[in-house]
Specification:
The chain has a single domain, classed as Vaccinia Virus protein VP39 (Rossmann fold), CATH 3.40.50.150. The strands form two sheets. Strands 3, 4, 5, 6, 7, 8, 9 and 10 form an eight-stranded mixed beta sheet that branches. 36% of the residues lie in helices and 26% in strands. By secondary structure, the protein is α/β, with parallel strands linked by helices. The protein is built from seven helices and ten strands. The structure holds S-adenosylmethionine (SAM).
Length: 225
């Protein structure tokens, strides 16, 4: 899957990705990244139950796969893009995962107040993959704010993707990626864990743990302070 290189938000479009007749979109990095991500996520989600909200689900392959891997969790995908929501729904049907129709959530908005979200009750977790670098920092702030409002007391926010870790790019490839993103949209770019932690603390969360992942990615885990 190639990522669109312009616009305020990154949305996969016909021509950018393969799309099956039933609406399923295919990420070309999902198969490579999902197995180690599942192992890492399991460290934080094993033994939990209840609703999980995924923000910026894209193709929906993570959502349907995690739903099958964690049957005690109710995994709700969401995205601001209608085609992505349709893809997430189609992946649930294709993989015979529980049907949890993808929700219309824009991370930059006060999404935590939407009835579709409050109806879910306290969230066991919020999961975000590959969104923070490809959207303005306001989206990260909005995700943190909403997660702080809707997570259960012991809930967890997991954010996966490429990050700058304490000022360090974690590889020349990530630094080039950051430059390309910023050239396309000055509001995009890899986020520094220091900045995300600072924004998290403003809303009562903090970066409690992090796991180094293949391809110079990270899984960040936020809990209440
Ligand atoms: C690079 S894709 C990642 C998709 C998927 N999470 C993954 O890891 O394969 C970025 C996703 O973020 C979504 N997105 C961008 N801005 C957003 C926003 N403000 N609120 C919610 N989703 C957003 C896009 O629609 C797209 O699905």
């Amino acid at each position: 899957m190639t990522t669109p290189t312009s616009g305020h938000t990154a949305r996969y479009r016909p021509g950018d990705v393969d799309i099956a007749e039933d609406g399923r979109m295919f990420s070309n990095v999902f198969l490579r990244n999902f197995p180690p991500l599942l192992i890492a996520v399991n460290r934080f989600l094993a033994g939990r139950s209840g609703p999980v909200l995924e923000i910026g689900c894209g193709t929906g392959q993570h959502a349907a796969s995690f739903a099958l891997a964690f049957p005690d969790l109710d995994w709700w995908p969401s995205d601001l893009d209608q085609m992505h929501r349709a893809s997430a729904n189609a992946w649930q049907a294709f993989l015979r995962a529980p049907a949890r129709p993808a929700l219309d959530v824009d991370g930059a908005t006060p999404w935590a107040d939407q009835p579709a979200i409050t109806d879910l009750g306290p969230l066991a977790a919020v999961f975000v993959s590959n969104v923070t670098h490809i959207a303005p920092f306001e989206v990260t702030r909005g995700i943190l704010r909403g997660a702080a409002a809707r997570l259960a007391t012991d809930g967890i926010l997991l954010i996966y993707g490429p990050f700058i870790v304490d000022g360090d790019f974690q590889g020349a490839g990530n630094e080039r990626f950051d430059q390309n993103l910023r050239a396309d949209n000055p509001e995009w770019g890899l986020r520094d864990t220091v900045d995300i932690d600072a924004a998290a603390r403003e809303v009562g969360l903090h970066l409690a743990d992090q796991v180094a992942m293949p391809a110079n990615n990270r899984l960040l885990a936020f809990k209440r302070v």
